[in-house]
What does this fold into?
Amino acid sequence: MNCVILQPSYIPWRGYFHQIYKADVFVFYDDVQYDKHGWRNRNRIKTSSGTRWLTIPVLSKGVMEQRIPINQVRINPHENWGKKHFRSLRQNYGKAPYFDRYAPLLEEFYARPTVWLADLTIELTIALARELGITRTQFLRSSSLRVSGSKTERLVEILTMLGATHYISGPSAKNYLEEEKLAAAGISLEYMIYDYPEYEQLYPPFDPHVSIVDLLFMTGPDAAKYIWDVGA
It folds into this structure.
């Protein structure tokens, strides 16, 4: 059984969804420490003046000092960020071929009075995965599994609990993953290779690392051909 364990992210890039596609079980690693300058609450879109960040404002006081986990980070209720993000998407992608196809879904999420960051990012990621045609992957949150330990030992505990036999990881994990512990548990390991074709973007030059919404707005139902159905 293939398993992926990744921290929840805001409208992540296509490589994130490729890992979801390859997984039988995808675990949102939501009870590890929040990283303030990571991808938990922000991502990038293309604009006529270059790449731009869309950032969900969070109540960050004490988050790093107290090592608060991702699933306990609150969205700042005093900022009207949802309308701002949707306005940015409309301004920059309103002329994209498939903007109208996905705009209602995104607008509905932005209108929700969500308290917890992880609730929003996880539910939106699952909704976008469904739009990409991913239907067989089972989604779980690590916080629901109540595992202990740290680093590789904790990953192994999650994988063993779920009965996983194959772990799929991003290539950056080569720097810290203790591969021998996975092997000792009888779990094979695969590192992702991100080698995706270009597609037409509204604002050249091409940037492969922007949010999945860029690909969806530009290619619509053919988006999978630019992720896992390359050459199909």
DSSP finds seven helices and seven strands in the chain. The chain has a mean pLDDT of 95. The first strand starts at residue 2 and ends at 6. The longest helix spans residues 117-131.
